[in-house]
Amino acid sequence: MSASPSSEQRVAVVTGAARGIGAAIAVRLARDGFAVAVLDLDEAACADTVAAVEKEGGRALAVGVDVSDAARVETAVARVAAELGPPVVLVNNAGVTRDNLLFKMGEAEWDAVIGVHLRGAFLMTRAAQAHMTKAGWGRVVNLSSVSALGNRGQANYSAAKAGLQGFTKTLAIELGKFGITANAVAPGFIVTEMTAATAERLGVPFEEFKAQRAAVTPVPRVGEPEDIAHAVSFFVSEGAGFVTGQVLYVAGGPRG
């Protein structure tokens, strides 16, 4: 997919891009022709993703930022604009888990998850949309989850991911007149460090955990980060300009 019919290379920002799904998205967008800003809490941890983007022939910039900190977000987006170019694609992928049953869940566990997923997406989008509206073209993709439909032990995560769906639909309404689309991708079980940590917490070997999940999925396999990157690639493409406010479940079966 071509990033743009324009001769000027467009700039994409991917949060939580040091590893896993975010890294796969960054590499895919570079392959699609975008320059990519690789954002994560630890700037040094972005080195591998930057190298992978550059291997695809793309330009990349690593930026360390806490997406839940308003001042740092503004600084990070300003740095991207100055060093790489004005960002017109934003993929809000940064996330954390603090799983616990409701009666055991502390306020810090709740606040951490809501802060990164929901507040982070709000702050990043608010900062980036100024560049998109000026350009008259933009793409926002928020990473939701099948957990938005409810998942035991994830009241905080489920609430955040469901909130991102409402946030996405509202962005579509508010920003459409500026040539900006907003969509969400809701992954099912994807092989990442996060899902490996979940298996460890449950005391289940990861290979066994993956086999269990594949067995109950209509498409009898688990997902890979590249499955999500492919969906994001579509949403940010020129051809998806009439698709907005949508939630796409990439989960190996019907959801939602």
| Count of distinct strands | 7
Termini separation? 28 Å
The fraction of residues in strands falls at: 15-25%
Number of domains: 2
The assigned structural class equals alpha/beta
CATH topology of the largest domain: Rossmann fold
Low-confidence stretches: 1-7
Report mean pLDDT, rounded to a whole number: 95
Strands of the widest sheet, in order across it, are 3-2-1-4-5-6-7
Q: Report the total helices.
A: 8
**What would you report as the Rg, rounded to the nearest angstrom?**
17 Å
Summarize the model shown.
With 256 residues, the protein is α/β, with parallel strands linked by helices. Helix content is 45%, strand content 16%.
Structural overview:
This protein has helices at residues 20-31, 47-55, 70-83, 107-135, 155-175, 193-202, 206-215, 225-235; strands at residues 11-15, 35-40, 60-64, 87-92, 138-143, 180-187, 247-250. Strand 5 (138-143), helix 5 (155-175) and strand 6 (180-187) form a beta-alpha-beta unit. It has two domains: 11-188 and 225-249, 3-Layer(aba) Sandwich (Rossmann fold), CATH 3.40.50; 189-222, no CATH class. Helix 1 crosses helix 8 (225-235), helix 3 (70-83) packs parallel to helix 4 (107-135) and helix 4 runs parallel beside helix 5 (155-175). It has a seven-stranded parallel beta sheet with strand order 3-2-1-4-5-6-7, sandwiched between helices. It has eight helices and seven strands, in the order βαβαβαβαβαβαααβ. The chain starts with 10 loop residues before the first strand and ends in a 6-residue tail after the last strand. Residues 1-7 have low confidence and may be disordered. It has 256 residues and is of the alpha/beta class. Helix content is 45%, strand content 16%.
